[in-house]
Amino acid sequence: MDELREISGARQVPDEPRRRWFAAESLDLIVWVDDTGAPIGFQLCYDRLRSERALTWKPEVGFLHHAVDDGEGGGLRHKRTPVLVDDGDFDAYRVSDLFARASAKLPPQVADFVSAKLRLHSSYAPSDDQGEQP
After folding, report:
1. Distances (CA, A) of 41 to 54, 67, 77
2. Helix, strand, coil tally for the chain in percent (to 5)
3. In the predicted model, what is the mean pLDDT of the chain?
4. CA atoms of 53 and 65, how far apart (whole Å)
5. Share of the chain above pLDDT 90, in %
6. Are the beta carbons of 92 and 99 closer than 8 angstroms?
């Protein structure tokens, strides 16, 4: 099972809320937390093994969805630093399902926060072959 597990030593950025980092083979989750440890935002990177994408939610901007340019330019150039680039299509229902299957070992406060936000995304609707929304 591809379960998210916390990675110690998440990089902290000055003047940003504290970060917690959870990783699995095909997912990465960064959660920003307040002084009490309550989640206040997140970035969920998914499809890491094929065409990585990142969904970010922060209260001041809402949802942002990006593709991850991994910096592999090919040829004889050195690998560049990965960057986020605009990517419009987002299947919130599929990603919510991926997250639900990988989140069993997350702290409940984190899992509930991310799950609730995913269900609020405007594209959250099951495809015809998946039946009704949970």
Report:
1. 13, 19, 35
2. 20, 30, 50
3. 83
4. 7
5. 57
6. no
CB 19 within 8 A of CB 12: yes
Please, which pLDDT band fits residue 131 given cuts at 50, 70 and 90?
very low
CA distance 1 to 8: 21
- The average pLDDT across 114-130 equals 79
Distances (CA, A) of 62 to 26, 40, 122: 24, 11, 11
- Over residues 11-52, the pLDDT tens digits come to 999 999 999 999 999 899 999 999 999 999 999 999 887 788
Dihedral sign (CA 48, 70, 91, 106): positive
- Distance CA(68)–CA(52), nearest Å, equals 5
Between the CA atoms of 16, 68, 43 and 94, what dihedral angle is there, to the nearest 10 degrees?
170
Residue 60 CB partners (closer than 8 Å, separation 6+): none
